[in-house]
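User: Could you go from structure to sequence for me? I need the amino acid at each position, not a summary. Structure tokens:
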């Protein structure tokens, strides 16, 4: 990382830290109870340029390398300490890329500027009740009727699925089976025949996660993203960026757990001295720090590969992203568990960062590609 980029990373990190400490961390418990973050938060984040980081200037964004985007994710996770708030606020980072890469100029102008201003919410809908990780088994179908597509089917576990104004959806078109029959289409959140219901979850409580039912939903044919049958490649390409971002988030959450545990250990008195003076506690903190440092070094290395243009074209980079995601989320899991243990009874109480992160870690290990899928994909990329 050159000096100019390093300075940009430090400045962005400081800005995100202040935003997270002032506008997210104090309100997360209330948002969790409400089951959502306020719409105003999107506009506030947009005003700071956070929603548009990495997007074209033509649509109100700021082109930025992965080094900056990942630094934002790390800082937001570390100081905001809410996966739910991040999932809600940045769901457009998985919903918009297919439109930007493959959608018509008309679609891009219709959707992207409003989302980057914080005036609209974008989501991605891939998973189905009977499909899970098997993307090629998608059953939701879109039939072409004149100048429209008529969509029938179901989607589940959709981040921002209840409130999204625009949903980039994977559907099956034509008669082809398997991956070659999958297409991507844009569905308005207010489309007639679209029924949405919120799902109850273990964590990410302030991120609405929806179950979608589509019964005769009609959308203009021009809302097709790219060509029919090209959706599977779009989805696989989209996953690479999502997994890298999740690795950065996991690092930030691991750091949040470490920060809270260290602060508690320095202040908490037990048996005549601070907890941090106990060898057993110091060793836990060192074990946490060891995993954090290894994750940070690996994230930096893979980020450099991504900024060199290897994220989609280099099999080794794809494999690295997969196993990095596993390593980062395992580090997050270890640090959350250790922090709860160090805080003891207080770590079991709502209101502590580590309690929230302890509940949220599992979705990080599943979402964007479960550990088992990541290992198998890496093995194929490395030709094992």
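Assistant: Here is the amino acid at each position, in order:
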């Amino acid at each position: 990382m050159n000096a100019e980029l390093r300075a940009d990373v430090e400045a962005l990190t400081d800005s995100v830290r202040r935003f997270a400490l002032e506008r997210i961390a104090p309100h997360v418990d209330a948002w969790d109870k409400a089951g959502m973050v306020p719409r105003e938060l999107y506009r506030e984040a947009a005003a700071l340029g956070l929603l548009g980081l990495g997007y074209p200037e033509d649509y109100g964004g700021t082109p930025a390398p992965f080094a900056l985007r990942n630094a934002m994710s790390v800082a937001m996770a570390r100081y905001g300490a809410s996966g739910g708030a991040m999932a809600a606020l940045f769901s457009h980072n998985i919903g918009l890329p297919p439109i930007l890469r493959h959608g018509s100029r008309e679609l891009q102008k219709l959707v992207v500027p409003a989302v980057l201003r914080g005036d609209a919410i974008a989501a991605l809908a891939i998973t189905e009740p009977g499909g899970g990780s098997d993307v090629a088994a998608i059953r939701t179908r879109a039939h072409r009727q004149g100048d429209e597509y008529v969509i029938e089917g179901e989607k589940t576990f959709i981040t921002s699925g209840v409130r999204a104004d625009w949903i980039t959806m994977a559907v099956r078109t034509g008669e082809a089976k398997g991956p070659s029959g999958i297409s991507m289409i844009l569905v308005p959140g207010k489309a007639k025949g679209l029924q949405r219901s919120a799902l109850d979850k273990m964590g990410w409580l302030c991120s609405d996660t929806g179950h979608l039912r589509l019964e005769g939903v009609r959308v203009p044919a021009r809302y097709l993203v790219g060509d029919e049958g090209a959706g599977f490649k779009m989805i696989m390409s989209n996953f690479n960026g999502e997994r890298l971002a999740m690795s950065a988030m996991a690092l930030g959450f691991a750091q949040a757990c470490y920060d809270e545990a260290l602060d508690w250990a320095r202040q908490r008195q037990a048996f005549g001295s601070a907890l941090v003076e106990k060898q057993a506690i110091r060793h836990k903190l060192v074990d946490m720090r060891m995993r954090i440092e290894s994750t940070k070094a690996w994230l930096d290395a893979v980020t450099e590969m991504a900024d060199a243009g290897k994220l989609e074209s280099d099999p080794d980079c794809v494999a690295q992203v997969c196993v990095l995601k596993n390593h980062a989320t395992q580090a997050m899991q270890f640090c959350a568990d250790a922090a709860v243990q160090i805080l003891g009874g207080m770590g079991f109480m709502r209101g502590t960062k580590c309690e929230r992160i302890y509940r949220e870690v599992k979705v990080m290990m599943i979402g964007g590609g479960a550990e088992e899928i990541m290992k198998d994909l890496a093995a194929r990329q490395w030709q094992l």
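One structural detail worth keeping in mind: The chain is about 50% helix and 15% strand.
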